[in-house]
Structures are given as C-alpha cells and as structure tokens.
Specification:
The chain is of the alpha/beta class and about 270 residues long. The protein has a single domain, classed as 4-Layer Sandwich (Metallo-beta-lactamase, Chain A). It is built from seven helices and 14 strands. It has a seven-stranded mixed beta sheet. The longest helix has 11 residues. The radius of gyration is 18 Å and the shape is globular. The relative contact order is 0.18. Keywords: Hydrolase. Pfam families: Lactamase_B_2. InterPro entries: Metallo-B-lactamas, RibonucZ/Hydroxyglut_hydro.
Length: about 270
C-alpha cells in the first residue's frame, strides 16, 4: 500500500490569499522553503493490485493528481462536507473518462446529502458511453465501523471537528485524521496498534475545531504509533521550526510526501 499526501494545508492553504504585494500571506512560514507551500488537505491510497482510494476532493485536486501521476481510481472517501474537502469534485470527470465508469463516493448519509445539495448533477445516473460531467454513485457508510472500499477492509471512526463531526479512517497499519479536535473513546480503540498516523495539527495554540501541537503530542503518548505525520498545517507551522522542535517520531507533512506499508485485509 502506497500512501501519498496530495495536500497538507488548511482551508485557505499556505500562502493564504492577500499580502502587501498580493502574493500571499505566509504567517510564520518562510516563503523560500518549498515545503511551506501547501495546498488543501487530500490523500491517496493505492494498493499493490492498483486499486485506489482518494480521500476528499478539495479545490486543488486537479493539480494534485497531475503532480503525483494519479489518473485512475474507483473510490472516493469523504471525511466531511466542508468546501476545502469537496469543492474540486467536478475534476473527477477526467478520471471517469480514464476508467470508463462512475466512481463510488463513500461517506455518511449526512455528508453525501450535503455534497449532493451542491453537486446534484454529479450524482445523476450515467448515460453511456460519454462523460460530459463527473459521475459518482453515493454509497452511505456509518461514521464508525468496518466497511469495504475497493475490495479492502477499512475501519472508519468518529471525530469531533468543532461544530460538526468528521470521519477518520484506518487501513491496516495506517490511519488518517484530518479536521479533528477531539476523539471519542471508541475511536482510540480503532487506533490502537496503528503504525503510521497522519493527524490534523493546524497551529501551535489551541483551536476550537482543529488539533494543535500539544494535543497531538498527548494523543501520540496514548496511541503510541511508530510515526506521526502532521497535516492540515496552517501558516503558523513553519517547516524549519518543525524540523528543529518536533520530538522523535513526529514529523511535518509536505505536499507529495509518500510512503509504503503492507496492504490491509481484503474485504
């Protein structure tokens, strides 16, 4: 299983729009460091047999897929329905054309209904043989529980994201928790024994909807993964600062970071 971080930035990316010269607001991030340039959070999981699962379709998804050489997958998992995680849904039309079929969109019933209110035409039945629009088929899944995506077992778990819930997922020895500020006990049970955990860490100071550095470090002590990778990083999280200050076993994500782990169980 190959895991690729397509984007690791917050809802506005880094740099954010604006700035004195119009070239962006970098906050504490050094503009000269390429790994400080972050597109919106998204992830791709590819199994050894070529089956792929895309996690979220943010507004940068077209550039992310092109940059990482990804042109085929049959499954999308939606963590939640905020714009920075769904706004690029139209772009999967190109994937429809490559694979010659609709893509299955997994998410809770509430999340899929929210997406359909904004992209109703994408969920209409496909009329073969052409794709004049993106075509996805909704597949509701529970917020917490085991499901099958692309033929593989995936364990989903609930997360608190401030005013709403979001979904985390575990595939074998890997787990992904973007857009989370609190985790219920049942979700810690799903995370037990995980090897590599990608976790939301928007900034250094407490936040109402996103985990911050001290909270992630507390979670690390409890879960004890071998490797923690921080994602959904805001302009407070400078690459060099993180390299100098993060403890062993904790590292910063960057757009395009990839690694391999054993495939999860077949479903």
């Amino acid at each position: 299983m190959k895991v690729t971080i397509l984007g690791c930035g917050g809802s506005a990316g880094v740099p954010m729009l604006g700035g004195d010269d119009g070239h962006g607001i970098w906050g504490q991030c050094d503009p000269a460091e390429p790994r400080n340039r972050r597109s919106r959070a998204s992830l791709f999981i590819q199994m050894e047999d070529g089956e792929g699962i895309l996690v979220d379709t943010g507004p940068d998804i077209r550039a992310q897929l092109l940059a990482n050489g990804i042109s085929a997958f049959k499954s999308i998992f939606y963590t939640h329905a905020h714009a920075d995680h769904i706004a690029g849904l139209d772009e999967v039309r190109g994937i429809n054309r490559v694979i010659g079929q609709p893509i299955t969109a997994f998410g809770t019933a509430f999340v899929l209904e929210e997406i359909q209110t904004r992209f109703d035409y994408v969920f209409r039945p496909w009329t073969p043989p052409h794709f004049f629009r993106a075509v996805v088929e909704a597949q509701p899944v529970p917020l917490h529980g085991d499901v099958v995506m692309g033929g593989y077992k995936v364990s989903l778990f609930a997360q608190n994201h401030g005013r709403i819930e979001s979904g985390g997922l575990r595939c074998g020895d890997f787990a992904y928790s973007t857009d989370v500020v609190e985790l219920p006990e049942a979700s810690f049970e799903v995370l037990a024994g995980v090897d590599t955990w990608i976790v939301d860490c928007f900034q250094k100071q407490p936040h109402s909807a996103h985990a911050w550095l001290d909270r992630v470090l507390e979670w690390k002590e409890r879960v004890q993964p071998r490797r923690v990778i921080l994602t959904h990083l805001g302009p407070d999280m400078d690459w060099a600062w993180m390299c100098d200050n993060l403890p062993d076993g904790v590292e910063a994500a960057w757009d395009g970071l990839s690694f391999t782990l054993p495939d999860p169980e077949k479903g």
